[in-house]
What does this fold into?
Amino acid sequence: MTVAYLVFSHQYPDQVRRLLRTLRAGSPDARLLSHHQGPLDVAGVETVPSGPVSWGGASQLAMLLRGMHHALRGEFDWLVLLSGQDYPLRPLSLIEADLAASGFDAFIETAPVEPQDEFALRYLYRYRRVRPLLARVARPLLPVRVLPSGVYVGRRAKPPLPVRRGSDWLTLSRRAAQAVVGADARVVDHFRRTILPTEALPHSVLHASSLRLSGDTRRYTRWDAGAAHPHLLGVEDLDAMLASGMDFARKFAPGAPVLDELDRVVL
It folds into this structure.
């Protein structure tokens, strides 16, 4: 069985190199792919052609699909999507053996989108970029979202399939990856005009398929109350991480001492 690890990153190149080297040490026969904003120069790593990426919008979805298309040009049975601030919690040999024996096609969360929640505002509307003044005029009547790429105003739209949502970080069989990149053009067009489309397009496509999905993402994160991003994990979190039985954890700060402790387990 061949596993491909696809790492998306835009900062902390030394930390990304460390992750890639750990993956290589733990799985000598795996395919390693990197989509990074700049050269990394790590031997044996396939470079996915990159372009400008802005968080939360269409370019982030394009990055995801571009990386998956690139992976599908080569061989793999399983594709593991990682960020540059992820790190394994178990030996790669055990992770890969469990994937082979799992009986699933994907490890992915597919939570429903409720009509009145924040996710409905993200995915049941289509957004377009506008001038800030127009956004202020529209705000009482239409949802407004501010992203790094600009200010966007949304209009209600009917998605071409039932919308599901979940984490960006997925573990997909080859069949599941093919289903995502082969999504109908109407589906891609809808989600590319939503907010954070990478957290809904794969989930919606796979939920609508006949593939066997596990709702367990196999990822460990710690969220503080009200926080917009996961807690930066440290040595104080080591016991909880290892006890979780998860495959990977995130996020880690560059050079975090806990990574040395995880190396003793992973390697």
